[in-house]
Design goal:
The structure is a single chain. By secondary structure, the protein is α/β, with parallel strands linked by helices. It has one domain (2-179). 52% of the residues lie in helices and 7% in strands. It is built from 11 helices and 4 strands. The protein has a 4-stranded parallel beta sheet with strand order 2-1-3-4. Helix 10 links the parallel strand 3 (140-143) and strand 4 (169-171). Helix 9 runs parallel beside helix 10. The longest helix is centred in the last third of the chain and has 14 residues, at 122-135. The protein starts with a strand and ends in a 9-residue tail after the last helix. 26% of the residues are buried. The model has no long low-confidence stretch (mean pLDDT 93). Pfam families: DUF4411 (PF14367). InterPro entries: UCP008505. This is DUF4411 family protein.
């Protein structure tokens, strides 16, 4: 299974789990998942990690800043030019189903601007990458701490809501850690 990880989950990892990882088992496991390509870090999430919480994720997972590590394991994955499979269908869903009530009050020009901005976000890029992987019959999941509820006054629904419509599996970091076998984490 391939896992596309969101900024919120990486932040939870470094704030709430790694401080208790005295023997660095979890730290080492996460690093190995990046190395073997099972854990996918996209460019837009990496950019968010640079400024979210004063760069805490990249300070803690310091190997993600190392040039050689990034080069050897092709991180972060470039997603700027990705197009969703069934592009027309995706854009129809974007225009109709992914919108929040707030976006329905925008005029056409305002909505088009918000749509353009949304497509540049980490959320949209993760979803598009997941659609591409899914179309290639790869087992893919997006890991995020977002919930379906609320929209933070945004024009588009949150990751779990959109993924539910697209039949893309979504889980939280605790759910992911439960299914990983053999990490045998001890918290003291």
């Amino acid at each position: 299974m391939k896992v596309i990880i969101d900024t919120s989950s990486l932040l939870s990892l470094v704030r709430y789990y790694l401080p208790f990882d005295q023997k660095t088992k979890l730290f080492d496991f996460i690093k190995s998942e990046f190395e073997n390509g099972n854990l996918i870090l996209i460019d837009a999430v990496y950019q968010e990690c640079e400024y979210t919480a004063q760069g805490l994720v990249l300070k803690t997972l310091n190997y993600l800043k190392e040039k050689e590590f990034k080069k050897d394991f092709k991180l972060p994955l470039k997603t700027k030019d990705l197009l969703p499979p069934s592009t027309k269908k995706f854009y129809n869903l974007l225009n109709d189903n992914f919108r929040t009530p707030l976006s329905r009050r925008l005029n056409d020009a305002e909505f088009e601007e918000r749509k353009k901005e949304f497509l540049e976000t980490a959320d949209a890029r993760m979803i598009i990458l997941a659609l591409i992987k899914k179309s290639k019959k790869e087992e893919i999941v997006i890991v995020t701490e977002e919930s379906e509820n609320g929209n933070d006054h945004k024009a588009f629904k949150k990751i779990p809501s959109i993924c539910k419509m697209l039949d893309i599996k979504v889980m939280t970091l605790p759910d992911l850690l439960k299914i990983y076998q053999g990490i045998d984490i001890e918290f003291k």
